[in-house]
## 1
Amino acid sequence: MTERAEIAKARRIVVKAGSSSLTTPQGTIDAARIDALVDVLAARRDAGAEIVFVSSGAIAAGLGPLGLTRRPSDLATQQAAASVGQGALFARYTSSFARYGVTVGQVLLTADDMMRRSHHRNAQRTLAQLLALGVLPIVNENDTVATDEIRFGDNDRLAALVAHLTRADALVLLSDVDALYTGDPRQPGARRITDVRSPADLDGVELGGSGRVGTGGMVTKVEAARIAGIPVVLTNAASAARAVAGDRVGTLFHPVDDRRRATRHLWLAHATTGQGRIVLDPGAVDAVVRRGKSLLPAGVTGVEGDFAAGDPVDLCGADGRVVARGLANYDASEIPELMGRSTRWLARELGAEYEREIIHRDHLVVLTDR
């Protein structure tokens, strides 16, 4: 079965729409565009698929009511715009989906919700229960409280992570362009790319920046496709119906690896930020990166930052290059006393509770090529 056919038969689909697909040039909600997109999602749902909708547009929807002509650059005004726009945006979705008797549920997430394992699991359970109850979840970043330090930065990455949270079969990214091009599609010579099967297919592709009211660009969409690990279609809102039907529209990103990585590992790799660093000797780098081993105290030569047991931390070699990330079993303040020691020595000298890894391999993900 081809990936296009898999999209047509997908049991669960995540669909993401960018701000430019939902608002007018003045930054207000475009009711006609929203209704047209809801028509597509409701029809696919009636055909038997479960839909999770990731919607941008809260900040953009707040621009008009606040009398702003462009997306604000300062965080406080962005948060204010999101506060005004999010309610209006969700109310519009509620009304539009009600035409089909579909109940929608709002799920607002921050990157911090993905970084903290307990929050991550709660989000996973909430989405699963909404789907089990026949509710169509509408997910957005919680821009009213997100800060520069804890935000996704774009909803493409969020959509890819939600696809993993929900174990989706396909992801559709709706943008203001109909496909990925080798360059700016407004310029002569730009060639449309219909399929991306490997990183080599992106050689020579110039990935543009963000648009008028959104924060993402082609860079974030390509990254989202890499994170997702499932068939991903990139196209515009006008082609949404054909995209979810598995027609040959837009650009299809084929999964590079047929083995779907564990949600825990994807969470560690793409939804967390290292709260500190642990420096490894060459033997430990080899053990962690190439042999899939746990990180033992004997291989640690240094520690940086202030983190607590259970926090995600980056593992790096002597040259400072990050090679892996994992959940620490110790506070940063405890590690200097353990460095270079065997777990047997630690258990004998400090007590049996110290006979454990710095990071267990089940809670560790490699971030570099082996």
## 2
Amino acid sequence: MIRSTFFNIINKFKKKDLVGNGLKKQYFQGEQEQIDTFRVFLCSNVYKDHYYGSQESGDMEHLASVKYGKQKKFVSEIIDSQVVELFEQVHQMGGVCSYPPPLRNLPYYSLEEKLKRCFEIKKMDVKGMEVQHPRGFKLRVKQSLVDHVEAGYGVHVEGEITPGTVVAFYPGDTYNARSVIPPLVIKDNDYMICRYDGTLIDGRSWNKRADELALQYKYFQETGTNATPKDLQKYRNPYAIGNFINHPPMGKKPNVISYSYNFSHYFPKELQDFIPNRKVTESKVFKDTTTFQPAMVIIAYEPIKDQELYLNYRFNPVNQPYADWYHQPDVEEAHRRWGETIQSPFSFIK
């Protein structure tokens, strides 16, 4: 229902293409951000109706008339309540690691090393701990169903997920887009995800550090680092598995969407240690004093039942050729996301 309704009314949010008379076709990141917000807004209304019996939403056509600012406010309220609920559960457990056991002596920083890791994952059928979500379904990191040599782990669902549900967080080191990022961090990094405000989140380095810490003798007492048990809690949030979600293979569609989320300074202090992100750089000029930590949440975009999660990675359409496992589920969406301007090959036709 969500997918069909969304595409029926999404054209209300699209500008007319500026093609003809030699003009270039223009794509706007802001336009795609509004579309993404509207998509999450629809899902959040379904979530609220399902769990709280709200009758305030009205039909989907009516929701299309809600102003953008009100959409964002509503989405923020629904996500905030879910994030606190998940973090309180983690806090009660004392933090647990849902990552699969680390694979020894297999680094992360080249395609060859990645292929070796994927081969070991398939051969050993390594799995992470099963996570019981407060909304009744289970999540587990284990071998992906994607039939490709570069497909290692994936996130699998047991049970049913209602659209609008926060299913995971995207963990990683965060960088401001204006800062200088070390080349080793960027090279061959499929785990680097970008927010619309330019914040980059590196999930690959996070995985590597989590593996290194898990391999240390007496995890909290003798880590071989200067970290304290409190510092290590951020690696023990079982919902910090967004970086294990795969891009949909050919023939499949994304069933979750990423959405920017900011942990504010008012986020409960007893829960802050479990935020699975770490600031490496931040803007000195445009510093947001209301934000404690920029992050990313992963939200169910449609009803999901007993299947693997898929997230559209939205690789930049200019950065081609792609890896052979990647295809663009929606080329126009990708162009809008990256704000590219291209010359229409038919611009000379009247």
